[in-house]
Structure formats: C-alpha cells, structure tokens
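Q: I'm writing a short explainer about Spermidine/putrescine transport system permease protein PotB for a general audience and would like to include a description of its predicted shape. Could you first generate the structure from this sequence?
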Amino acid sequence: MTAVDSTRTGLDAAAPNLRRPWGTWALGALILFLAVTPFILVIVISFGQKIEGAGWEWDFTFANYQRFFVGALWPDEVTFLHLQRLYYALYYAVIASVLAVATAFPFTYLLTRQSRRAQSCWLVFILASLSLSEVFIVMGWDVLLSNRSGLPMLFEVSGATDWLKRTGWFEVLREWGLANPRNVKFKTSEFATILTMSYLVWPYAVILLYPALSRLDPSLTEAARTMGAGPAKVMTSVILPSVKLPLIGSMLLLFVFLLGSYVTIVVFAEPAKQTTAVAVYESVRGATLDAPFGAAQAVVLLVTAALFLVLAQWLTKRSEAR
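A: Of course. Here's the predicted structure. Afterward I'll give you a sentence or two in plain language.
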C-alpha cells in the first residue's frame, strides 16, 4: 500500500466521524423545532386580540390573561369563572391520579410475585388495553352508567334501590348528587368523572410502577417478617419507602396527562363543573372563535402543570434530605 492509499484510507475512515456531528445537530435541531415551535406559537397568539365578527390579529396585550383571572369587565366587575374551571381541572386530575396509583399499586405488587409466564400474560393484556382510545373507553362507561340501561337500572330491578331507601343511604346518595327522587344516578356527577378518568390512566399506572416493584429485593420483606413485622408493617416500613419516588413520579405523570382530558369531562361532568381544557376548545373551535383567549387559557394550564411539577420535585428533595 502506497502512502497516498494509506492517506485516502485514513480520510475515508475519518469522514463518517466528521459528518456524524452535523447529522446529529441537524436531527436535534429538527426535533427542537418540532417540539418548541407549537409552544412558542401558542404563547405569542395568547397576546393577540380578537376582532369582533372576524378572526383575530397579532398584538401584545394582556387583556386575555386579565379576562382569565378577573373577568373581561374588570375593574367594574370581577368574575372567577375561568379560575373555577382551572380549579376543577386540578381537582379532577389530582383525585383521579391518586386513585389510579393507589389501586394500581397493590395489583402491580401482587403481579410481580406471580410466575414469569403469568406476568407476561398480564402485561400483554394491559399493554393491549392502551390501544383503546379515550372516546372508546368513555362510550363504554357512558353505557355502563346510563340511567336507563346501566347500573341505575340494575339497582332498580334488583331491589337495591328499595334497600337503600329503607336503610337511609338513599338520602345520603341524594346529598352527594348520586340519586334523583326515584333512583340512583351517576350521570352527570363528579363520581362518574373521576371514576372514568382513573380507569383511563390505570394501565399507565401499572406500566409505570412495574419496573420499580419488580426490582424490589424479596429478601428485605423476608427479613422484616423474620423480625416479627406483620404485613401492614412490612408494607409501610419496607415496601412503600423503597418505591416512594416511583409512586410520586407516576402520580405526577398521570396528573399532567389528566389535566388535558376532554371527552370524559364533556360526557360526565356537569356544565358548571367543566374544566379549562373544555374552555380552550370552546374558545378555539366553538361559537366564539377566540383563538387568543383560548391560547391564553392553554398557557395558564401549562404553567400550572409546570408549577405543580416543580413543587413536587422540591418536596421530594426535601423529604430525601431529612
């Protein structure tokens, strides 16, 4: 081999190394563009201005944010309608995410104690359930909770409604908004909304908790039992502290996911208790066609989710430092 050939061979070998950084940078820039551009557009549009009888125009005004927090007629009149919708978005998301993780945790723990074959079958089934869309799941629960063909009819036919009336529990259900003067009802109610939202994210909770619980060392629980600890003591002093961070992380991910729930809220929540996600859609695609105000609501929802994530991370670090 001549010196020229050896030099060319060296250049050919070095060429991919020289080209690779540019390809990596180009791919990173493309991903960054696709990820960041929608957020920037929404933020910029939120400062725009609605034109009555037409569309909207670019501007730099805080009127949309003022309308969200204190109403459009401020300072003459103050309304908190949109803050109330934000409250219900947080209310539903917090309770549903906690309920989903609380019910998925014992199931996942028992699942990791099964044979490999049983675990594989359950995981395949749960992963397959993730292919169901929110619309499909909500339709199923809509039929199940329907007053004429679902659980309320089953209560009436089986005599459970009469039993509730005799024992006094029917009046309690009426106070909770789960019964009308004749029979129990689940639509529309906070109960049906939270139950459906929890069901929607329950498979995600199992998938998120499975890695941490499957890596849990069985010798720790065996040692605790050998020292005389009961099942409840083993759970609270050994298992839960070992998977505290995955539990918190799972709840946060589900919480952020549920903040944007739309179909479930529209079907099961009362109109006065609907969330910011529904208001965003009504502003952008509804009768008002007020894209700047819809963008402002979306920005507030995004910032709220970010604040909760930061707060949860701060609390986690503080608890670890103790």
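A: For your explainer, you could say: Residues 3-45 form the longest helix (43 residues).
Q: Perfect, that's easy to follow.
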